[in-house]
Amino acid sequence: MPKPNLSAHPTEVVKPHDFDQFWQEIMEEVDSIPLNASIELNPLRSSEEVEVFDVKYDSLDGLRIAGWYCLPRERTKTLPARVFYPGYISEPTLPKSHAAQGYATFGAAPRGKLRSNGAFNPGYPGLLTHNINDRDHYGYKGFYIDAVRVIDFLLEQPEVDSDRIGIQGSSQGGALTLVVSALRQQVRAASAGAPYLAGVVDAFKLTRTYPYEEINDYLGIHPEHRSAIVDTWNYYDCFNFAERIQCPIIVYIGLQDDVCPPETAYPLMERIGTSNKKLYEYEGHGHDANHHEHDHVVDAFFDNQLKQAGS
After folding, report:
1. pTM of the prediction?
2. Residue 288 CB coordination number (10 Å)
3. CA 223, 225, 229, 232: dihedral to nearest 10 degrees?
């Protein structure tokens, strides 16, 4: 069966003239905040092969962010690292299996997940529209930065090879992968599945499923806020970060995805800055994006980009 002609879909996303300045000022503020990372061994979650640590670090707005850090017990030299970013409603993964394969791994938990939800918890649904009319106080501002600071944490760890850090995730995890790759050039390889938050102002018209449906629900109550929502999202859309991505990256989508419409993946790929990029399209798959089979592609990609680079 021929694939649908999705590549011709246009986008209404606009890059604001001060987009770069907006994020430069945020990153300058972030870089002035000491990380104050704490690491505590978690014997209950550790195994014979892998040590698991509870990690906490400081981020924007005075929030203390948590995460899982995993290391192979047997380690005699610096390790490549892989970061796993969570989906919208997902709690962070505990990436012990990849640590057992010789990686330092981190299960990221931006604000509202794991142990920071006592200080910030707009809920799911809720995060997508939290302060959505205000670009300076929008919920995703801190959420993005919490994801960025995982890279800062890894760069401080003596067992991590700072030239071999890879990041990955699907859905919201795919969006965070794109944003962090753009904002931290120390990322050496990236894999984004079914990327969410790319072409947002297109997506909430293309689908009636959640999380994007949160915006339609909000507009049903506050139709006068439509212009403000579009203005805010032009500062947060992955399309407008994409040209900054310079590391090798793979993206995979399901062509029947009704959560993150596949139409939004094509403008995204066109905008990604590096020429070392590849899109995998899976016919017959929805938001799962065929990850059960594609996970092998992702593992081979990171082994090639990170392990062989250190051999």
Report:
1. 0.95
2. 17
3. 180
Mean pLDDT across 19-47: 97
- The residues facing 70 across adjacent strands are 52, 105
Buried b (16+ CB within 10 A) or exposed e, 186-224: ebbbbbbbbbbbbbbbbbbebbeebbbebbeebeeeeee
Distance of CA 109 to the CA centre of its chain: 11
Q: Model confidence over 124-169: pLDDT tens digits?
A: 889 999 999 999 999 999 999 999 999 999 999 999 999 999 999 9
**Which residue among the candidates 116, 146, 202, 285 is catalytic per the annotation?**
285
- The residue annotated as part of the active site, out of 171, 287, 291, 294, is 171
Query: Rounded to an integer, what distance in angstroms lies between the CA atom of residue 37 and that of residue 238?
Result: 28
Of the listed 257, 287, 291, 294, which one is catalytic? Answer: 257
Annotated active-site residue 225? The verdict is no
Mean pLDDT for the stretch of residues 76-93: 93
pLDDT band at 117 (very low <50, low <70, confident <90, very high): confident
Integer Cα distance of 294 and 305 in angstroms: 17
d(CA 147, CA 234): 19
Question: Could you confirm whether 257 is annotated as catalytic?
Answer: yes
